[in-house]
Design goal:
Elements (H helix, E strand, L loop, with lengths): L6 E11 L10 H15 L7 E11 L6 E11 L4 H25 L5 E3 L6
Antiparallel strand pairs: 1-3, 1-4, 2-3
Length: 120
């Protein structure tokens, strides 16, 4: 029996950091780590999903001049059962979190994970 259900998933992973971690003037080690994180994030969503968007953005806060690093992705699954795909998509989010935290540790940057509230 063919599964005609489509399941859409949206991921938001957000961290606050004290400086622009993607600045080109941060040194060659940081540039290397930055290139590695870009490669990892590019492939973070498995090929079984139809990827609509995946982006990494940086925003500066006006009050304390810290930066917000935000990874957002939207993808769709056309296979599998709803709970199976939900668990799999949670795994994608956890993988992205792990990659970003490894990146922050590799460049010796303090970070704080922020909670994002979704407004339906």
């Amino acid at each position: 029996m063919e599964n005609n259900n489509n399941y859409y998933y949206q991921i938001h992973v957000v961290y606050e950091v004290p400086y622009n971690v993607f600045d080109d003037s941060n040194g060659s080690d940081v540039l290397k780590a930055r290139d590695e994180i870009y490669g990892k994030l590019l492939n973070a969503i498995p090929e079984k999903y139809e990827k609509f968007s995946a982006k990494l953005t940086l925003h500066q806060l006006r009050d304390n001049y810290n930066y917000i690093v935000c990874y957002e992705a939207l993808f769709r699954s056309t296979e599998g059962l709803p709970m199976e795909e939900y668990v799999s998509s949670r795994g994608v989010k956890e993988t992205v979190e792990k990659y970003l935290e490894e990146f922050f540790k590799a460049i010796d940057c303090d970070y704080r994970k922020l909670n994002v509230k979704t407004i339906p």
